Amino acid sequence: MASITLGxxxxxxxxxxxxxxxxxxxxxxxxxxxxxATLADYAGKKVVLNIFPSIDTGTCAQSVRTFNExxxxxENTVVLCISRDLPFAQKRFCGAEGLENxxxxxxxxxxxxxxxYGLEIIDGPLAGLHSRVVIVLDENGxxxxxxxxxxxxxxxNYEAALAVL
Length: 165
Fold this sequence. Notes:
The chain is an alpha/beta fold.
C-alpha cells in the first residue's frame, strides 16, 4: 500500500506500483467509442500510461494537455490517459481542447486496472478512483519508469518519464 496525500491529508492506495524491469500486466479498458483496448493492442510501441483520478480536475486536465504536446514529438510512442471517468467525458474534454496526440481509456466498468496496478485509492473522498501515476513501458511491455505522485494535486515529473524513452 502506498501512502499519498490529497490536499495534505493522508490517503492510501490498494497496493504498490508494478516494479521497474518487470513485464506490465495486461489490461482491458474502454475506448471513447465503447470498444475495448488491451495492452497487446500497442505491442511494438513504447507506451506512456498517464493515470489520474478524473479528467474534470485542473491537475488531471493539465497532465493530459502536457502529454498531448510532448507526445507529438515522440517516435513509435503512444500516450494512454487512463481514469475511471466515463468515455463520454474523456472524449468531450479532448474534443473541446483539440487534443489529438493521446488516447483516452476508461476503467469505469470494473476498476480492475487500478486494482491490478496497485493504484486504486482505498480511503478518503476519492476512494475508488485512481491515484496519479505515470508508468512508461518499452516496446515489449517492460516497465522502464513508474512514478506514484505523492500529492494528488501535484503534476507528475514529465521529464523523468520522457527521459527513459
